[in-house]
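Work Package 3 committed the consortium to producing structural models of liganded targets before the mid-term review. Because experimental data for this complex are still outstanding, the team generated a predictive model from sequence and the ligand definition alone, so that downstream docking and mutagenesis planning could proceed in parallel. The input record is reproduced below exactly as it was submitted to the modelling pipeline, together with the SMILES string for nicotinamide-adenine-dinucleotide.
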Amino acid sequence: MKRFEKKTVLITGAGQGIGFEIAKQFHLEGATVLLNDIDEALCQKAAARIDNTLTTCIPFAGDSGDIGFLKDMFAKIDARFPSPDVVIANTGYSLFRTFLDMTPESLRDVMRINIEGTFFLLQFAAKRMIQAKTKGRLIVMSSVTGQRAHRELTVYGMTKGALETLVRNLVVELSQHGLTVNAIAPGATLTERTLSDDSYQATWARLTPLGKAASTADIAQTALFLASQAAGHITGQTIVVDGGWTAISPGPEMVSES
Ligand SMILES: NC(=O)c1ccc[n+]([C@@H]2O[C@H](COP(=O)([O-])OP(=O)(O)OC[C@H]3O[C@@H](n4cnc5c(N)ncnc54)[C@H](O)[C@@H]3O)[C@@H](O)[C@H]2O)c1
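The resulting structure, written out as tokens with the ligand in place, is given here.
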């Protein structure tokens, strides 16, 4: 028996990167995966890469920061499943912009996708889990920038900090229904997006105590752990997966002389 056989896992922003790897790993361990991405062609292609019949990996293309889309997606899911067993709010908009250059429109965009989208994804999911008496698992993708300042990621970091606060607060209302809610805070992770910066891998290998940036599998394995029986008593927590980056503060030897 595979770990997630007969389980349904919904994941947003999973056409590539961390989300795709999580979707793939859950599927390998027996889950039916409901895969969302805003890019319709990528969403379809990603789901087909996992299951080319699209029966055990089903694409749901749309903007996970749009509450109307989330409602439509859940209506379609409701028609086929009593409730998902695991829901992963993975979509994140990492806009690089200085504090002084930030515009109200850009700020709202990041807040809408990262906070509103995650909040209502979890609310819609939790309602269904409670109704179906599913002892569900909710997982939110945070970031080490929710805990440490990072150049040009003020607003992104703010939203990630807010998500970690959300996760703690949901314990108050959802524990009585047997739901757990946790966040993962990845450090630098090698994805299609981050690898488009040629120096990313080498830079983060130098800055990370364990000597390398995370792989998407490092993050996916943490998500599978949080959704597994082994993590049944863990809730309200953020698991940092960063090769030790947040554990240390830069010492004199780590600051390059210029
Ligand atoms: N990659 C990293 O180094 C890193 C580090 C820390 C945290 N994170 C977090 O992990 C999560 C995944 O990061 P990633 O780098 O793999 O993602 P990414 O930027 O590569 O995007 C993954 C997918 O999300 C889709 N997407 C974007 N906006 C969407 C929306 N509104 N609705 C639905 N889909 C949307 C994109 O089309 C893309 O296919 C994010 O929450 C991110 O903040 C990533």
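Reviewers should note the following from the model. The CA atoms of residues 30 and 52 lie 15 Å apart. These observations will guide the Year 2 experiments.
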